[in-house]
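Input structure tokens:
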């Protein structure tokens, strides 16, 4: 049986805003609302959706950078919220994160040797001296950099090379799970493919499991095995990459796919049906959270919240008419 590397159950995160006045009830931001996900070892799950849909909040909870309001996150079968501070520190070597900005995530005052090695210093302090140097060098070579890069500083590298350093920093503890939050969005298009190819090579060679967060459906199509589409803190559709692009079931997913630019002539493609922006996160809608923007919404959609249900084998959607 294939091992489950990541599992979330009913994952919820609400933030209470400061009071605007002494006698006013503080507002609550419903950032994440009951998310259930699973990723098997060696697989990759893409998380897509517009800004404000809860993707980055999900990443912070999976990385145990924040505590859930409700629900649980399990990495390799262990509930992260139940671990002591020491146990969580030991567990962190098994899950690492690659951040969006390769310019801001690397300390410009430190050499590559120190940047990559700091992860070992924090999570595997017993690894020292020659063993530490060997681990750092192996991580660098895995991402296509060389020994003579160890003594260089971030400003001596291009954007794509900096993101390779960031991946090496995450890879040095040999984690089972890597969470990548928009890992190529800050890079030139010509460099993005290089980084994505690197991530695929690392998955084949080291068996890394990915949770890839992106607003770019092209990136998800290129890298991921499965895709979960999020809207206002909920998963509204989840299926394999192939089925999502061939037979999307949720109106929001269809609108996202229609908005993807296509190269070529022929008849003009129908414009996206999406109007306006993501709705308010400070109140919970009685019905479907997408109803105000949905072109097929009916009265039922505004009164009853749809549940995420299986509409075909390995295909889940949260829509009354899917």
């Amino acid at each position: 049986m294939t091992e489950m590397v990541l599992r979330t159950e009913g994952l919820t995160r609400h933030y209470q805003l400061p009071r605007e006045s002494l006698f006013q009830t503080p507002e609550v931001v419903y950032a994440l609302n009951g998310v259930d996900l699973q990723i098997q070892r060696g697989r990759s799950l893409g998380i897509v959706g517009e800004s404000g849909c809860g993707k980055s909040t999900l990443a912070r909870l999976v990385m145990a950078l924040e505590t859930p309001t409700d629900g649980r996150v399990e990495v390799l079968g262990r509930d992260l919220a139940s671990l002591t501070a020491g146990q969580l520190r030991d567990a962190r070597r098994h899950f690492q994160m690659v951040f969006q900005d390769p310019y801001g995530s690397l300390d410009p005052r430190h050499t590559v040797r120190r940047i990559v090695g700091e992860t070992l210093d924090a999570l595997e302090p017993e690894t020292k001296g020659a063993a530490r140097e060997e681990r750092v060098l192996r991580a660098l070579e895995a991402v296509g950099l060389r020994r003579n890069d160890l003594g260089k500083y971030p400003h001596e590298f291009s954007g794509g090379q900096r993101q390779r350093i960031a991946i090496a920093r995450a890879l040095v503890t040999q984690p089972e799970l890597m969470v990548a939050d928009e890992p190529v969005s800050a890079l030139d298009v010509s460099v993005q493919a290089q980084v994505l190819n690197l991530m695929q090579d690392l998955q084949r060679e080291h068996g890394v499991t990915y949770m890839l967060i992106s607003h770019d459906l092209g990136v998800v199509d290129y890298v991921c095995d499965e895709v979960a589409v999020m809207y206002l803190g909920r998963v509204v559709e989840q299926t394999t990459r192939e089925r999502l692009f061939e037979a999307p079931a949720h109106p929001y997913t269809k609108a996202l796919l229609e908005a993807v630019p296509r190269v070529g002539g022929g008849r003009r493609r129908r414009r996206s049906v999406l109007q306006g922006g993501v709705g308010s996160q400070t109140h919970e809608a009685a019905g479907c959270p997408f109803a105000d923007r949905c072109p097929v919404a009916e009265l039922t959609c505004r009164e009853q919240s749809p549940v995420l249900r299986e509409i075909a084998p390995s295909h889940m959607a949260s829509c009354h008419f899917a």
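Confidence is low (pLDDT under 50) at residues 265-269. The longest helix spans residues 189-206.
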